[in-house]
Structure formats: C-alpha cells, structure tokens
Amino acid sequence: MWQLLWLLLALTGTTVAATEKIRYCDYPVYPPISWSDGKQVRGLAPSVVKRLFGNLGYEVEIVVLGNWKRCLLDAAEGRVDVVLAYSTAQREQSMHFSTVPVLREEVAVFVNRQHPVKFERLEDLGNYRGGLLFGESYGLDFDRFVARHGNIEWVSDSRQNFGKLIRGRIDFITQERRTGQLLVENLPGAADIQALPNSLSVDYLRIAVSRRSALAERMPAIDAELQRMVDAGEIERWLNESEATYRDMVKLPAHAQ
C-alpha cells in the first residue's frame, strides 16, 4: 500500500512535508495584546502570530519566560524565532522587523492623583521616580533619558508596578494607554490612578524575527500576509474581541477562571 502511495506521489510530482514548527516568545502581562488565563496565553498577539504563520505553513509553539527581557534575549540568540515588539536601533541588530505594523500604540504616563506629576515633555519626568518592566523600551530618546537620570525601578509584573504606584512608592508608570487603562479598571485601590492626557510617544507593534532564524529569509512573505490580514480587518476584529474577553474574564470569580 505504501509503495503504491509513493509511486502515485512520484508520478504527480507531489512531495510529503511535515509542518515546520517555529517558536514564538510571549510575556503575557499586556492585555488586550496578551495575557494568561492561568492555562494558556490569550489576546491579540498570539492570535495574530498563530494565524499569520499558520497561513505561511508553520506550526507555532508559544514560549513563556520569566520577563520580557528574557524573550528579547532569546530572540537575539536565536533560541526563539518570533516576538512582537517595538523596533529600536539596538533590537534591529539582532532582529528583522515587519514593515507592516500589527498595531499603533500610544504610550501614556500613569500617575496617582494623590501625588501629582507635572508632565509636558520627557525631561519633566526626571524629577520623579518611575516604574518599568524589565526589557521595556519606548524609543531611543526615552532609553537615553532613563540611562541619564537613573530614576527607574524595574519589576517583572505590571500589577506589581501599579501596586507600587497605588501605594506611592513610585510617581509614574509609562505604559501603553489601552493596556494600562484595562489593568486599572478592576485593580483594587486603583481609583486614583489615571493616565495623563499628553502622550509620551506613539509607536508601532511589529512582528520581529530573529536574524538567526530560518524565518529571516521570509520577511517579504510575512509582510505580504500581514498586510492582507490588516486589509481584511482581522486584526482590528481580534483586538476588539480580546478587550471584551479580558473584561469578562476579570469579572469572574477566581475559582471560575
């Protein structure tokens, strides 16, 4: 039987190929982009990656590490193939970034009303103590500001960060506006946490492929498929669904999640 099958394949010029597996690293603490329900990673990011690379013929393995910095390091070293990230000059040394963005993101400054912060331009934040997650970068100017002032406390969890802001241990958090507002909606004690109206910056979340991955040769195909998904409205639909799902999830009792 097998001999007959291979003969038919040989005659038709068809080959049998196993689906190639790629590794995608996520740090799921950024709803609605990605978060964990305790069992699996959910949100816009894993949905986009699985659909995008599935359409290109790949099986996606999701890898979750201890913090975002570990994801970026593993991508740089080629231990994982893909992450979703902002493009920076340093990251571009080890990763290729899609020319088609996945999502436009507005970076806001979150503060505690009980401890007012004056913010009109980046340098104003040099007078205050801030909080960031390990590995976060909001552009070259911001990275230089952080290095120059040394006024940032680094943590691995967004809830820990906002908890410090609630208790007055730090003065501000820089966070994507959509994600920050979702986090504080149901965070105990967060009634006084607000996003300032002025944005710190606007950036774009992109598919980032390790330069050490075989996927690096497929960037044109990745951009083309990503553009098709954007044009079809798939990404906007998943974003809206992800926000609604996260809000529903956090309202459930802990034992039901």
TrEMBL record:
SUPFAM superfamilies: Periplasmic binding protein-like II. Transmembrane segments: none annotated. Pfam families: SBP_bac_3. It comes from Pseudomonas fluorescens. The keyword Translocase does not apply. This is Solute-binding protein family 3/N-terminal domain-containing protein. Signal peptide: none annotated. Keywords: Signal.
